[in-house]
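User: I'm curious whether this sequence folds into something compact or stays loose and floppy. Could you predict its structure so I can see for myself?
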Amino acid sequence: MIKELKKLPLFERVDSKIIKELIVSGQITKGSYPKDVTVHEQYSKCQGIDIVGSGKLIAYSLAANGYETIVFEFTKGDIIGANLLLGNLNKYPMNIYCTANSTLFHVSKKAVIDLLREYNFVIPFVKSLSLNSQGMNQRIAMYTQKSLRENLVDYLTALSAEQDSKSIILPMSKKQLADHLGVRRPSLFRELRYMKEEGLVEINNRAIEILFL
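Assistant: Here's the prediction. I'll summarize afterward.
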């Protein structure tokens, strides 16, 4: 497990002896979770941090009418719970759910407090907190300041840069994309249809040809 942890940014420069002691004492454990499993339920207490070793998870909220809003996505190396663990409101504000078979390294609160005395742990930990804050700010801007068209253009532009092509493949279903953007499916489908009619995109299931770039 030490070798696996050393490949992750949070533990990359932490002394192996320290990691070993935490593993032996049960302060760091490893868990495997299949797709479609909820790892943490909304409002449950955060008792440690989770580091994604493999797979993919999302943080989503569920409204009373059953409408889902995906707020964060977590992939290898990402940290779950870092912004909650040491706060007064240390309950998960959203469900943490596996969208793929995933491996998580669980680090207890005591271990985190001990590790915060280690400079080589503190820097990536603080960076994670910063990225989490930036992600939340982007979400707030998405939900309150931009139109669906603007958010779609931003998302497709980012995908084009990530895939280095104007012919992109959506990494999720259109239902999941609607949840990701915080809108209902009919609204997303309608906007995509308008964009196609205006000659901005060509759409074939998950394959999208971007014509506005």
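Summary: Helices lie at 2-6, 16-24, 109-115, 119-144, 148-163, 174-181, 185-197. The chain has two domains: 2-144, 148-210.
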